[in-house]
Amino acid sequence: MADASFLMVTCQRGAETALKNDLTAAAGWRLAFSRPGFVTFKHDSPTADWPDSPFARTRSHSVGKAQSDQLAELLDRFDGVLDGLADRHPGGFDHLHVWARDRAVVGEFSFEPHAANPLVADVAQRIYQHLTAGGRVAASEPNQTASRGQSVLDVVLVDPGQWWFGWHRAEDLPSSWPGAIPPVDAEQDVVSRAYFKLAEAVAWSQLPMRPGEHVFEIGSAPGGACQRLLELGFRVTGIDPAEMDPRVLEHRHMTHVQAHAEDLKRSVYRDARWLVVDATIKPQKTLWAVEGIVTSSEVSVRGMLLTLKLGSYERAEEIEQWTQRVRSWGYPRIAVRQLATGRREICLAASK
Ligand SMILES: C[S@@+](CC[C@H](N)C(=O)[O-])C[C@H]1O[C@@H](n2cnc3c(N)ncnc32)[C@H](O)[C@@H]1O
Question: Fewer CB under 10 Å: which end of the chain, C or N?
Answer without folding.
Answer: N
